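Re: that backbone. Tokens:
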């Protein structure tokens, strides 16, 4: 019997993407945009686990996790971008938490652990879809993928079935997000200080965020990791792991691409570079 996953997320685009990722991995996923809709689905569908993407882990979210998670029947994982939410989530009874941004493989592994933890529960009838009579509308997903959805007043959403292919640890859409990796030959850093300004740039034509990480080839020591860089912008100020002596170093520049919201890792590239510290 297919294992069922309840997804909760106010962001309907991400809700649809996550649902299709899980369905491609062999799960039966259904979705709610808020705690009220999720409570209805928990009662009618008896999910094997819940993935709650809480953009704002407020009292409503805490109440839902406490009510569902502390029953000990349905494990709940809270997905959050704020480390301050993690302890309250666990205290409320969450089975686990996942910090954003994350790789798809990590999400799938955490879901597998939760599903296995509830494997001894009696089987319950499930429904493949929850349909509503509200108007159907379309969203442009990351400027390339359309999601068809219908919604009712209870916060229960149904998405269309556009294909999505899983990678490891990345995924691609039916029409890929445009990703261009800048070609870098050298990186200049100041010697004798752990603070630097770097001019590594995310090409303006990109539809993704980029993260740059520099590691020395001698020993593999990481020098810096930038924040997520918007298209058309430079990395700017970075904190070095240590001050470099004057000289020339061989290094590897790791460039990672993320969806425009910064949530999903969608690709990467490694480049051999020279580092000049002066």
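Recovered sequence:
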């Amino acid at each position: 019997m297919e294992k069922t996953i309840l997804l909760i997320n106010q962001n309907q685009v991400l809700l649809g993407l996550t649902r299709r990722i899980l369905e491609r991995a062999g799960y039966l996923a259904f979705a709610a945009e808020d705690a009220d809709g999720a409570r209805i689905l928990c009662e009618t569908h008896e999910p094997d686990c819940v993935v709650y993407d809480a953009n704002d882990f407020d009292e409503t979210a805490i109440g839902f996790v406490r009510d569902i998670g502390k029953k000990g029947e349905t494990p709940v994982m809270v997905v959050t971008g704020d480390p301050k939410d993690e302890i309250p989530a666990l205290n409320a009874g969450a089975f686990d938490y996942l910090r954003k941004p994350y790789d798809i493989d990590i999400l799938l592994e955490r879901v597998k652990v939760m599903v296995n933890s509830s494997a001894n529960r009696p089987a319950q009838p499930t429904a493949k879809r929850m349909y509503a009579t509200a108007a159907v509308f379309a969203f442009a997903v990351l400027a390339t993928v359309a999601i068809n959805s219908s919604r009712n007043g209870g916060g229960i959403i149904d998405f269309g079935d556009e294909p999505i292919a899983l990678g490891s640890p990345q995924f691609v859409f039916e029409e890929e997000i445009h990703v261009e990796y800048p070609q870098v030959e050298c990186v200049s850093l100041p010697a004798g200080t752990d603070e630097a300004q770097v001019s590594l740039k995310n090409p303006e034509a990109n539809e993704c965020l980029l993260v740059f990480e520099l590691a020395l080839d001698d020993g593999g020591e990481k020098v810096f990791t930038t924040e997520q860089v918007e298209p058309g912008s430079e990395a700017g100020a970075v904190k070095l792991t240590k001050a470099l002596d004057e000289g020339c170093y061989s290094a590897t520049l790791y460039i990672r691409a993320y969806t425009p919201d910064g949530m999903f890792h969608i690709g990467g590239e490694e480049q051999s570079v020279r580092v000049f510290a002066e």
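Residues 104-117 form the longest helix (14 residues). Residues 122-175 have pLDDT under 50 and may be disordered.
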